[in-house]
Structures are given as structure tokens and as C-alpha cells.
Specification:
This protein is of the alpha+beta class. Helix content is 28%, strand content 28%. The termini are far apart. The protein binds adenosine monophosphate.
């Protein structure tokens, strides 16, 4: 039994805390919002900015181990606390900057879209391949900070702000998007089979397991994710998002934390991604997860809340698992919860998916 400090009190922290509680651990959370999802579950809550070194030092003095639940945690601050954050700081430094991240993947020999760095308007004009995607190097998430450039006119019109940094990368006409979630322990690394993801406007809407890909694509994707975690000397759960085109697996980005696409492991696997994350950071022996049944997850965004409540009230179902994150304010496109459909009966799954697909 340990005391675990979580930097960030959002839904990932909440689900980490739920897993940790099952294992008998205590939880301390640092978050600037005293109404964040973790408030209801934390044994101790420290209301402070993520960059408040004193608050993190207080948390460190009261816990055995710490974890961050979001990839924009301050890497230098995390570094100061050394092994108290087993995830380390390098995974943050690399994943917080898209150019560094793509370079890192390229150096590891992974397939990446062609990309260039943009630090001034002049850097835009070597772009001759369309469509191309321009992305901010920092703080882009859920499709924010991205511009699709279809042709030279779009390129002429785009107004980027400098000294901001951007990358331009080839738009990949992919067959499917997948993610591989790995858990790296002190004594080994394990992975779930790939998840298939559907995004709309950059936001994850749906995840499906098992993913219909051939064995060679599956192996390549898992190997890529394990290589990344190993190279970073990372401990905990890490997710890698990739595109599949034909037999090619193309790296998009990674997140050094549990991931939205693996939420269905709570019901569809013997060990969820949150169980594995907590086990890894508390130095438990490496445990390999097994998928128990197929699953489909839909995110519940702000605009879906009323629809989900009325559907569930009208017809609750033993194969439908709804998770609410306890966020006070409901906003358009804000992740308010998720619903997992889990059953081995293919006909039943089809009917459930029809019923639970969000309308907006
Ligand atoms: P990102 O923030 O990089 O994960 O991008 C959000 C979503 O935009 C991805 O999940 C894809 O659906 C789409 N996307 C990002 N990069 C590319 C790309 N190079 N080609 C095609 N679609 C992309």
C-alpha cells in the first residue's frame, strides 16, 4: 500500500485514482480547480497551479511516488523530483514539441509523414506538396492549432504567429487510425493489441477493439510503441497514435500517460490501462493484460449529455457501461464522460452500436 501523488485532477487522474483505490493506495492530487473530477476521490487535495513547485514539493513529501496525468506538465519541474516521477521528464520534453517528437520517431527508424519546421513565413514557401497539415509545435490538442492547407492559395492566406513554432507535414490519406497502449514496468514492457480510432475534427469520437488489421501491421505497430517507451526509459502507461495505409504504419504522436482510446480496457480487459499504470509506477512486477471481449467506446461530449441520459433511462443494458467524469461545466465538445459497449455477441454489439452512436 502506497500513497500516490497525481499532478492533474482531470478524468485520467480520476480513473488512475479509481484503479489505485482498488489496490488499497492513498491518493493526493494537485490541481488548480477545486471542482475538478479528482476532488471527490482524493484522500488529500492541494489546490495549486501545475507549475507550483512548493505545492508539488508538499505532495512529494507526503507520498511514495508521483505521476502526471497530462503531457503538458512542466518537464523541468518534473525533472527536479527525479525518480519520484517514474515516468520521467524526457517523455514530456519530446512529446510537448511536435518537431522534436517527429525527429525522435524518425531517428528510431519509424515511418513518419514528411515534415518540415516552420519558424517564419519564409519557411512556408518550400511547401509544394498538398494537402499538407500545419500544426503548432506546442499546446495543440484535440485538433486545435491545426490547419489543413489544400493548395497554394490556402498557403498564401494562412496567418501564423511568430515567434511561434510550427511544423508542416504531409496529409496522410490513411485507411485507419490506430493507437497502441503499452505499459513499461521496471522488468518488462507489455502492450494491448491496437485500438482502432475514429476522430472528428481532431477529437476522438469512437474506439473499437479488436482492430481489423493484419498480423504484420499489428506487430509493426506494437513494436513501434515498445521502441518509443524503451528509448525514453519510461515507466508507466504510454500511448502511440499511428496511421495505417496499406501495410504501412505511420507514426503520428505519442502521449506519456493513459489514453482516451484505451478507456474500454476497464471493461474489456483483465487489467485496465489504469491498473497497469498504477502497478508500473508502484514497482509491481510486469503483468501482461488479456482482452476478454470486444468493445466499442463512444466519447460523451458536452452536446451528447442529454441524449445519453435519456437513452440510458429508457433502456439500461448490462453490456453498456457509462462513465461520468464529474465535470461541473458542460461545454460543446468538452469530454464529459464515455460509454463502453462490451459484449462477445456480434449481433448484439451491432445493435448496441446503432443505438449508442452519438447523433451530433
Ligand atoms: P493530432 O493532434 O496530431 O493527433 O491530430 C488530430 C487528428 O487529426 C488525428 O487524430 C488525425 O485524425 C488528424 N491528423 C493529424 N495529422 C494528420 C496527418 N498527417 N494526416 C492526416 N490526418 C491527420
Amino acid at each position: 500500500m502506497s500513497t500516490i501523488g497525481i499532478l492533474g485532477g482531470g478524468q485520467l487522474g480520476l480513473m488512475m485514482a479509481q484503479a489505485a483505490k482498488k489496490m488499497g493506495h492513498r491518493i493526493i492530487v494537485v490541481d488548480p480547480d477545486d471542482q475538478c473530477p479528482c476532488v471527490s476521490i482524493a484522500d488529500e487535495f492541494i489546490c495549486a497551479k501545475y507549475t507550483d513547485e512548493q505545492a508539488i514539493a508538499t505532495m512529494a513529501s507526503r507520498c511514495d511516488v508521483m505521476t502526471y496525468e497530462f503531457e503538458n506538465a512542466d518537464a523541468q519541474l518534473v525533472e527536479k523530483f527525479g525518480e519520484k516521477f517514474p515516468q520521467g521528464s524526457e517523455a514530456l520534453t519530446v512529446s510537448q514539441h511536435r518537431y522534436k517528437e517527429k525527429k525522435f520517431a524518425q531517428k528510431l527508424g519509424l515511418n513518419v509523414p514528411e515534415f518540415i519546421r516552420i519558424k517564419s513565413d519564409a519557411d512556408l514557401y518550400p511547401i509544394t506538396r498538398f494537402p499538407t497539415l500545419i500544426k503548432t509545435c506546442r499546446f495543440g490538442y484535440d485538433g486545435k492549432g491545426q490547419w489543413l492547407i489544400r493548395d497554394i492559395e490556402d498557403l498564401n492566406e494562412i496567418k501564423l504567429e511568430f515567434p511561434g513554432e510550427y511544423i508542416a507535414e504531409d496529409f496522410i490519406d490513411y485507411d485507419r487510425e490506430i493507437s497502441v497502449v503499452v505499459a513499461r514496468f521496471k522488468d518488462g514492457t507489455v502492450a494491448y493489441p491496437p485500438f482502432e480510432n475514429v476522430h472528428e475534427k481532431g477529437i476522438l469520437r469512437k474506439t473499437v477493439i479488436p482492430c481489423e488489421i493484419n498480423a504484420s501491421v499489428k506487430d509493426k505497430a506494437i513494436e513501434a510503441a515498445i521502441t518509443i517507451a524503451d528509448q525514453l526509459n519510461y515507466i508507466g502507461v504510454l500511448a502511440v497514435e499511428m496511421f495505417v495505409r496499406g501495410d504501412d504504419v505511420i507514426f503520428n504522436e505519442f502521449a506519456p500517460r493513459p489514453h482516451n482510446s484505451a478507456h474500454l480496457t476497464i471493461e474489456c480487459a483483465d487489467f485496465s490501462q489504469f491498473d497497469l499504470h498504477i502497478a508500473a509506477i508502484t514497482s509491481q512486477p510486469c503483468t501482461s493484460p488479456t482482452l476478454l471481449r470486444p468493445g466499442v467506446m463512444f466519447n460523451i461530449l458536452g452536446q451528447h449529455v442529454a441524449e445519453v441520459l435519456s437513452k440510458y433511462a429508457a433502456q439500461p443494458d448490462e453490456h453498456v457501461y457509462i462513465h461520468w467524469y464529474g465535470k461541473k461545466e458542460n461545454r460543446f465538445n468538452r469530454k464529459m464522460g464515455h460509454v463502453t459497449l462490451a459484449t462477445s455477441d456480434a449481433i448484439e454489439m451491432k445493435a448496441l452500436v446503432e443505438r449508442w452512436r452519438m447523433s451530433k
